[in-house]
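hi!! sorry for the late reply, been swamped w classes. u asked for the two structures so here they r. pasted raw, havent cleaned anything up. first the sequence of the first protein and right below it the tokens
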Amino acid sequence: MTTGPLLVTERLELWRPVADDLPQLVAMVSHPQTARYLGGPQPMAEHFARFARNAGSWQLYEYGSFMVRLRGGDGRIVGNCGVFHSWRGLGEDFDDRPEAGWILADGYAGQGLAQEALRAVLAWLDGRLDTEIVCMIEPANAPSLRLAGKLGFRPTRDAALPSGQPVRLFARQADGSSAGIGAVGVRPEASAPEVDRLEKIIRHRLTGGIVAR
């Protein structure tokens, strides 16, 4: 059982990840069109390490990346978006900061879904955080570079990950500026029974089983 915020926008629902989400998440980020901006194909151990790191962010800092699904859909995960804490080894101006990140499943880009999800997350966080939020993007990832600008991120410097992969670093002040930039219907913290019920509905839709409400 888990508790956490359930964010609802016009088209999306975002929830705190649970263990059963891992297989779908791995399948999503392993698609060649998605993996190309994530350092290429990764072994299962690396997928689990990233998943566990996000779980640690939720546990220690009370925020992290959300799983994303379409409202009224089949419960399939179509994205992973949010703000998390992750030491990258990029320096004091980046490492110990809340970091934004967004991933969409193949076939869902170009519809404004990442922007819609991130606006909801930032609206939820503004007023809770009193420090800047950072993000890193590959210089060749033009869609994400544009989205960062729309979300209020400004470039700070270019850097390289320990693997040698070049990235561009951005920062955004968490000062309440998201309140009027399009977050729709952010619901309050979901109760444990509600989250459990939603998890059962998702599993029901994925397996064809019978759900007890």
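now the second protein. again sequence first, tokens right under
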Amino acid sequence: MTHDTADGCGVAFKLLKGIVQFVQTFFASTEITVKPNYQSKPDSRSQNMKSSQEIAHYFILSLLASSAVILGLFLLFFCRKKPVESEESLPAARISAQAYPSTDIDAATDGFNHRRIIGTGRLSTVYAAVLPGDQNPVAVKRIHPSLVLSNACFGFPSMLKTLSLAQHPNLVPILGFSQAPGERIIVMEFVGGMSLDYYLHENSDGAASVLDWSLRIMIAAGLARGLEYLHEGMAPNIVHGCFKSSNVLLDDKFRARVSDYGLSSLVANKKRVLVGHVDDEFWSDGRGEACKESDVYGFGVVLLELLTGRRAEEGLLVRWALPLIREMRFSELLDLRLARPSDDTRAIARLARVASACVNNSRKNRPTMSQLATILSNLEME
């Protein structure tokens, strides 16, 4: 029951109680007498006055009775006591990132043993680890020392505590952090699968062929929902700032999980990292400020990668793909490693048009992630 409904029920109950008390008082104070037949006929004017009073009394009683019925029905249908929700049915409270002692991180990674490395990039090296007293594996992201020394990690604890509040099925949640002189560590949930970049572009073992067209549409819809949550479901809103296929992990069910959101401020030399994944406006002010619209552009680039199987490569993918989409030459656009869709190809055409809307428009004309999530979720269900 909502707060407003509860207030209305209280008022209705008080009114009904007041009506009942008034009626009881009315009958208690009203004397009803029966006159015998042999009594002389009363004065006509007095009789008319008495009749008028009786009519008024009956009218008031009828009005009160009607009001009581209406209030009773309201109480019956809207104010019935509803079962109290169990603790299990209530949404889980958001808990900010835990601060781990550096000794725990060192023990979990065997002193950052190279055998535990599961990934590396311009931001960090990632280690598979199990923290002391916990049986669940985690991913330990060790920020490169050069970034730590360059003061890129200023405000690190407060930033991680804010980012860790983001909880969504299509995100890789941040569990905790650690810091020491010259060290900045991010502890994240362990996702057993590989990155989307690996499946699409590291095809020496045929990984790309695993992602058929239905899976690629499912991945696109999941990514849209994850970014929508960051943009609209968090307060304050979170801009990813570095959205690309290497920052997307696929779990054992090929569910897309967005990683490294909100960490772009830690990246040095952003041009080398982001060229081809952000729009021209990103560089126009000379500072490389990320925004929701630049995330939408990066999302469109990832859609083109899903469609074509090609790397972004400094904007060449966008310039190559857009004319083909405008001219509806989809057979030349699609990933050649996969067979053409045997069923209706309209879903692929719609995916291509969505990608075009993300990368071809100016910022003010781009769709929002909420709009994209709705479109792609509907496409996923078709």
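hope this helps!! also noticed smth abt the second:
The domain at 98-189 is CATH 3.30.200.20 (Phosphorylase Kinase; domain 1).
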